[in-house]
Amino acid sequence: MCVNTCLAYMGPFADLDICPMCLEPRYDQLILARSKGKKKRSHQQFHTMPIGPQIQALWRDLTSASNMRYHEERTQELIEELQLNDRALKSYDNFFAGSDYINAVAEGQIQSGDTVLMFSMDGAQLYEKKSSDCWIYIWVIFDLSPDKRYQKKHVLPDGIIPGPNKPKNIDSFIFPGLHHLSAIQREGLRIWDSSRNIIFTSKPFLALVEGRFGDQVD
Fold first, then answer.
1. Rg, the chain, Cα only
2. pTM of the predicted structure, to 2 decimals
3. Is cis: bond before 164, omega within 30 of 0?
């Protein structure tokens, strides 16, 4: 990434050696000169954790795998209730009760075994008397019940962008996470359900995107 947090050298910026915004070099020029151009060490890096292996890991634990089945079980309950009550629900107490989700299931966009995700990004203040020191983007797994999905242990990190400057081109930083998601949506993610000892294919569905982007977007 750019040493001033302008952008990440991903996607359309992958082959650049100089940041087009601040004109700072991508690589440590001293090391580059000493190695006669052979050793390219980035001035700064950010870290990503692909969502696919994290979803697979949730299904490998017996308790976690049972918790992950909430999505499918609740969806079946809602479908049966709609059929019995002339397409009306008694209460709308969950994301799955919303018409957008129900319609997506009816149209086959979300199928049995598919993981439903929410993407969120915001700045994080690591020190008490200082503004945001880094920016983090995360995944919330809607397959878990509402009382579990927002617990700290179930909120999954996807990327950490060091500061102290605000990211200017956010798209470039979230590119690897969304590129990975797009790949497993297209190809399918093979999962072993340890609670039932079966293997199935999941195509994660991105249901919601939220975050404090504001003037950070270029």
1. 21
2. 0.86
3. yes
Q: What is the pLDDT of residues 150-194, one digit of tens each?
A: 999 899 999 999 987 889 999 999 999 999 999 999 999 999 999
Domain range holding 166? 46-67+115-216
State how far the Cα of 79 lies from the Cα of 122, in Å rounded to an integer.
35
Per cent of the chain over pLDDT 90 is: 73
Mark whether 147 and 197 lie in a shared domain: yes
Which structure tokens are listed for 89? 């629900």
Residues 35 and 51 in one domain: no
Residue 202 lies inside a defined structural domain of this protein:
yes
HSE toward the beta carbon, residue 106, CA cutoff 13 A: 14
